[in-house]
């Protein structure tokens, strides 16, 4: 810490320099240690967010924030849950005199219904080829769906219906027409195929990874016998009965 306790600064204005002065707060921009020091400083915030129990649950763990240096992503299942996490951040910021830059803050939603309405309203007069490319771009990336292990069958059913309706509305097809036929004729994947591709991709990367942390997780009983592995196997392998 000698580097920080003895540092002095000057301000350059044109060809003139101010008198040197010291500073007792902040970290060096672009410094090698800066991200690590900032992570240590805000570690309590991560703990406070984790203690809420709000977020994306994977097995017995809860993930609701991803941070590196001064960038943070909050993950929440609903708008109310997100507001609860933001409230935790506001309390921490007030206590530690941190100011969030709202001009660099974005709120992203992965609700398929919102995506579908946007595509239908803005691109209804585009060609079929353009519509299908938009469908692939916006309706294939269902973030973190491969990590789900606690969802109910009814939830997946509602998601499938929503996914099917988006395609039909985008192509102006009647709701009673065959969804399977619509997907097949237009060369796009339905939700089941998207989920299988996502799970296969993630599972393959986990199984082939040489990273020490991922290797430890892969060898744990929580991974081998846990619910997420059962979900994966259920999606990837279909058993023949009789």
Number of strands: 8
Count of helical segments? Answer: 12
Helix content: 40-55%
Series of H and E elements: HEEEEHHEEEEHHHHHHHHH
Rg (C-alpha, Å)? 24 Å
Structural class of the secondary elements? mainly alpha
Largest sheet: 2 strands, antiparallel
Can you put this structure into words, describing what you see?
It is a single chain. The protein is mainly alpha-helical and 242 residues long. It has helices at residues 2-5, 34-41, 43-51, 79-96, 112-122, 128-139, 153-170, 179-186, 191-208, 212-218, 221-224, 227-236, and strands spanning 8-9, 12-13, 16-17, 21-22, 56-58, 61-63, 65-68, 71-74. The strands form four sheets. A two-stranded antiparallel sheet has the order 1-4. Strands 2-3 form a two-stranded antiparallel ribbon. It is built from twelve helices and eight strands.
């Amino acid at each position: 810490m000698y580097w920080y306790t003895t540092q002095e600064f000057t301000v350059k204005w044109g060809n003139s320099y101010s008198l040197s002065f010291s500073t007792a707060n902040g970290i060096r921009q672009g410094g090698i240690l800066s991200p690590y020091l900032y992570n240590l400083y805000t570690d309590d915030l991560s703990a406070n967010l984790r203690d809420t129990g709000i977020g994306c649950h994977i097995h017995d763990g809860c993930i609701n924030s991803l941070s590196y240096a001064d960038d943070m992503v909050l993950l929440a299942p609903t708008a109310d849950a997100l507001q609860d996490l933001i409230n935790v951040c506001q309390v921490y910021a007030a206590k530690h005199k941190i100011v969030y830059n709202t001009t660099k803050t974005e709120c992203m939603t992965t609700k398929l219904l919102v995506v579908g309405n946007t595509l239908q309203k803005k691109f209804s007069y585009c060609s079929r080829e353009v519509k299908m490319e938009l469908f692939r771009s916006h309706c294939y990336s269902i973030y973190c769906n491969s990590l789900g292990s606690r969802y109910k069958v009814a939830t997946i059913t509602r998601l499938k219906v929503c996914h099917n309706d988006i395609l039909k509305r985008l192509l102006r097809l009647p709701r009673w027409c065959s969804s399977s036929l619509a997907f097949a004729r237009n060369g796009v994947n339905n939700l089941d195929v998207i989920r299988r591709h996502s799970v296969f991709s993630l599972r393959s990367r986990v199984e082939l990874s040489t990273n020490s942390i991922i290797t430890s997780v892969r060898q744990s009983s929580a991974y081998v016998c846990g619910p997420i592995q059962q979900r994966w196997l259920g999606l990837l392998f279909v058993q023949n009965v009789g």
